[in-house]
Amino acid sequence: MDFLPEDCVGHIFSFASPPDACRMCLVSSAVQCMVESDSVWARFLPYDYQDIVSRLDSPLEFSSMKDLFFKLCQSRLIDGGQKVSTYIGEISKCIFSDHHLIIDVVAQVFWLDRRTAKKCYILSARELSITWASNPLYWSWKPLNGSRFAEVAELRTICWLEIRGSIAAPALSPKSTYEVYLVAQFANRAFGLNISPSGVTTFEVGNKHHPHQTRCLRGSNQPTLEYVCYSSSTKVLRSRGCGERNQNARARGDGWIEIKLGEFYNYGLDPSDDQEARMSLIEVKGVYLKGGLIVEGIEIRVKENERGS
Fold first, then answer.
1. Pfam families of this UniProt entry (predicted)?
2. CA dihedral over 45, 50, 52, 53, signed as positive or negative
3. How many alpha carbons lie under 13 Å from residue 108 in its C-beta half-sphere?
4. Where are the chain's structural domains?
5. What is the DSSP string of 65-85?
6. Is there a contact between 130 and 295 (Cβ–Cβ < 8 Å)?
7. Domain range 96-302, its CATH number among 2.60.120.260, 3.40.190.10, 3.40.50.1100, 2.40.50.140
């Protein structure tokens, strides 16, 4: 190995995972010097890392590509106060105040998975399209301690629940399976969420639909919102009930609950591709009122079994 050019050795090491590269540093001081070179760790960074760094809310200082990689593995706010989203078209995507369109400032949280170096995001509630979110009779927007974002959305009362999100496919890592989670809490006054509606979730990247199974938010002994997933508009799976334990909902270490909505595969081979990964949670067939669901956002992260040990 001592006879190989440094860039050649760096190229070889770059095919390892970031944890493997760290373990290689223990072999010898010579190997450590090569593994910690910028040429190795730059290959672990996404191709658009410079654009990502420029979008961070707080300036990021780093001493090396390795230092930058591990700093990007920490959740960081991007686009806050900068990205502006105007909702036009369908009434469910519009935000009006006194019949004037409000331009909404939104934000995302970004991080790299430290095991796979793949990109992960949380889309804030403001970045989602929530039907009737601008009507204070149905939803309220408020700051909440412990949230990553300036505001969260709390469902006051409604019988039509529709939450949609999207992200540009090239913004995600290519050739990767992603899991999608609703990050939420339940207010003490939560009601109507333990009835079994005929809700659906959909996932698609471009024109590719992804099949899923029946799931629900919480166990039957707690307020529950059930939903089903489908692979096409012609085949819908009916809810079969939640059972006492729900494997799709679990407490997070940050004080929130995450509910797995499903997963999808992102091809994303062409950075110039304009396709989107779209997801939705819809319950519109129930005639009963529900409330008390607090939505922080939707998390999109690389699937667990792709991360290794």
1. F-box-like, PP2
2. positive
3. 26
4. 96-302
5. HHHHHHHHTS-EEESTTT-EE
6. yes
7. 2.60.120.260
Residue-wise pLDDT for 61-101, tens only, equals: 999 999 999 999 999 999 864 443 333 333 333 333 333 33
> Percentage helix, strand, coil, to 5, in the chain?
15, 35, 50
> Which residues sit opposite 304 in a β-bridge?
none
Q: What is the pLDDT of residue 14?
A: 73
Length of the chain, in residues: 309
CA-based R_g, the chain, Å: 22
Under DSSP, the state recorded for 91 is G
- Indicate yes or no: pTM above 0.85: no
Tokens representing 22 are 């760290």
Task: Quickly state the pLDDT bin for 16 (edges 50, 70, 90).
Answer: confident
Enter the tokens of residue 13. Answer: 């090491």
Burial 147-165 (b: 16+ CB within 10 A, else e): bbbbbbbbbbebeebbbbb
Q: Are 67 and 60 in contact, with CB atoms under 8 Å apart?
A: no
